[in-house]
TrEMBL record:
Annotated Gene3D superfamilies: Spore Coat Polysaccharide Biosynthesis Protein SpsA, Chain A (3.90.550.10)
Record's signal peptide: none
Organism: Brevibacillus porteri
CDD domains: Glyco_tranf_GTA_type
Protein name: Glycosyltransferase family 2 protein
Domain of life: Bacteria
Domain Glycosyltransferase 2-like: 6-145
Length: 267
């Protein structure tokens, strides 16, 4: 019988962290999973770090021919997944032991039109190999697509997607000027949330790290803000031009401070 989940670990030069991510899958209380590691043409010793896991019948490894970016990596993963659900686990993060058990419980309780399940997470700071918990991020239920569009906290995690829904919306968008390397998480959820339900689970289901390798320079902030504005405008237009965005900045990033209802002129 095919497992319920494929946990996908997209990775690029995360040899220092990837074993922790893999072990967190192996240690799940639920064994109802496959693990797919997609290496985006790493130039470090990522491959040697994962070789000892390749004996496991439920672990697969695929290396991209060239560095392609997270959007194309996730589309490659989608083309290989044969389970009903896909859980994305970044290679420098890890899952609590009961994550898949909890997700499975809520999947059984939810309508088939639910395309995404997510929960809360802990943020850990990593210095010299030591992990220090900094904050707990509690997400929320989105009652409509506009609430998610203007959500400006940490991106929701874990992201457990219904694979059929991912195929129906066309997977991850790589048509932008950065070819899906930026904001792939927010943009795939926007594709889903306009057609499907999403389900919030009020439990810690993910551990995310902050470390030196994630530093964002001013050039990257410019790119992200460019794509954020383009994305916001695209969906507001697509959804009927009912609202106008009032923009602001939070920690250097463009955000929607509020949505103003557009008044239609009577003819």
């Amino acid at each position: 019988m095919n497992p319920t989940f494929t946990v996908v670990i997209p990775t690029y030069n995360r040899a220092k962290f990837i074993r922790k991510a893999i072990n967190s899958v192996l240690n799940q209380t639920s064994k109802d999973w496959k693990l797919l590691i997609i290496d985006d043409a790493s130039t470090d010793h990522t491959r040697s770090k994962i070789e000892k896991y390749m004996y496991h019948p439920n672990i697969m490894y695929h290396r991209m021919e060239q560095n392609s970016g997270i959007g194309k990596v996730m589309n490659q993963a989608l083309s290989m997944v044969d389970t009903p659900y896909l859980v994305q686990l970044d290679s420098d993060d890890w899952l609590p032991k009961r994550t898949l058990s909890v997700l499975k419980k809520y999947i059984h309780k939810s309508k088939k039109s639910t395309a995404l399940f997510y929960g809360n997470m802990n943020i850990w700071k990593v210095r010299s190999g030591k992990y220090t918990k900094t904050i707990k991020v509690k997400h929320k239920t989105f009652h409509n697509k506009y609430q998610f569009l203007k959500y400006n906290r940490w991106m929701v995690s874990p992201r457990c997607y219904r694979v059929e829904a991912l195929h129906k919306v066309g997977g991850w968008d790589t048509s932008d000027r950065y070819e899906g390397r930026i904001m792939e998480d927010r943009r795939i959820i926007l594709r889903l949330i306009e057609k499907y339900r999403v389900r919030y689970i009020n439990q810690i289901l993910y551990n995310r790290t902050k470390h030196k390798g994630q530093l964002t320079d001013s050039k990257m902030k410019f790119r992200r803000n460019y794509l954020r504005k383009k994305t916001f405008k695209f969906y507001l237009n697509r959804w009927g031009k009912k609202y106008k965005a009032i923009y602001g900045y939070k920690e250097g990033y463009l955000v929607i401070k509020r949505l103003k209802k557009v008044r239609r002129r009577r003819r």
